[in-house]
Structures are given as structure tokens and as C-alpha cells.
Amino acid sequence: MAEYIGRFAPSPSGRLHFGSLVAALGSYAVAKHKNGKILLRIEDLDFFRCKKEYTSIILKELDEFGFVFDGEPYIQSEHTDVYYRVAKKLVEEDKAFYCNCTRSHLKTGVCHCREKGLKENAQDNLALRFIIPSTHQNSFEDEIYGVISSPVTVDALTLIRRDKVISYNLACVVDDIHQGVTQVVRGSDLIDITTTQMCLYNALDTECISYLHLPLAMADETYKLSKQNRSPAVLDQGPPSQMLIKALAFLNQDISGLNPQMTPKVILNKALDNFEIQKIPVGKKVIEA
Which of 101, 173, 198, 227 is the most buried (most CB within 10 A)? Predict the structure, then answer.
């Protein structure tokens, strides 16, 4: 059996919020529970939203929580040549095409750019779009949820935007393959893109990995905790030990032997000894203040 390799992949568009901590803790605990490795990846390709200063802040905050990742952090912006190389390969194999449609036009569901045969030109604002094959999977098995039906609802997926930002889906799949990730543990807000990402795995002649989606931390019944929703930084809500215990409780783990006076590393070690994957709840949970 191949060695288990997981990853935590935050974007430096702000400080860690409680949902970020849940994702970090969940991916870390599952990897350690399975005697595997846990990698840290910084997904900073969207240069409009991501700031370098937040990368160093996130690294510092993760250290304050006691997380010890395997190897050095993998910074996506330092590897853009890899994504462009894969994108070019998909074009050469007629699995992707250049597109000059605006976002508003794409919303109409009509795009004839594939038939136009547009060529790459540095002067043109062309996006690159991946062709979703007509024969693709509409479901996958999640370790917590079981079989999830999630039909792909588009016939093409943007790989590189017109403003030349490399898409999350392309970079995510390429990096998971490159880093040998065997299971992705992430928030359940990303369930719907899973089958779309599986199409990319198939296009790159790589076997799909497994998935485990964590419960989604909600500010209320409507809004998830996220940087885009300006959720408060988790370390502004309480000290590391206190927030770790709160995140463990959110994941329905036993916290009876833990207290905020313990150091984060002691809490993590004790939690890992008693971590039970089958106890992780599904769906969404509103966070109580």
C-alpha cells in the first residue's frame, strides 16, 4: 500500500479564520491518524487577492497552533512554469482550447471558440479552457459521506483566465499529482467541484485520489466563514489552545481530557491519540461565539 500523503493548502488572502483552522486540523489529524505525511501548500496564484505578507503571517499562525508539516512549504507562485507546461500539453492533445469570451457571455452557455481554433498570442486576452469529455463520472466516494452524486454542469472549465491568472482547479490537480497526494481533506463547500477535478485527473492520465470533506463552519445559516466574507481571524477570538479545543469539538472529537492551560502541542498530541475519523460530522455547523 502506498504511503498516505495529505496536504493543507491555504490561500494568503487574509489571516486564518476558524474555518481555516478546522481544515488545517482535519487534514493534519487524518494524515497523522493514518501514519502518513502532511504537506503544506500556499495557494497564492491569484495575485489580485493574495498578498505576500499574509504568507508569512499564516506560517507563523500555524506554528502557534503547534502544527509541524513534512518538508518545506510549497509556494505555488514559484512553480508557474509547471502549470503552463501542463496547460500547453492539454492544448497539444486537443483537450483544451483558447477562448476570447467574456464572463458575461459565458453565462449565456454559448461559446464557439473551440470551432474558431484561436491561437495563443501574448497580445490577445485569451483564456484557456479545458474540454469536459462527454463520458465523465458524475459521482465519487467520500470517506465520510459515502457515494456523492455531483454531476458536472459545464462543458468546459477555465484553466487560465483572460487576465493570465492560473485557475485553482488546474493548479490544485497538478500539484496534488506532482506532490503525490493520496487523499484530499477539505471543506464540504468544495464537494461540487470534485467531479470536475476528476476530469482533469483523467485527462492527465492519472488515477484519481480519494476525498474526505469536512463539515463547513458557518457564521450563521447563510454565510460560511471565509476570508471573502471578512470572517474574523481565529487568533483574535482566543488563544491557540482554546481555539484548538473548539475546533476539535467542532469535529466531534473527545475533548474531555483537554484544557486551555495546556500548550497547543500537548493538545494536538493528546487529540491525535484519540482521534476518530468516523466521528467527524457531515454538512454545515453554525459556530457559536
Answer: 173
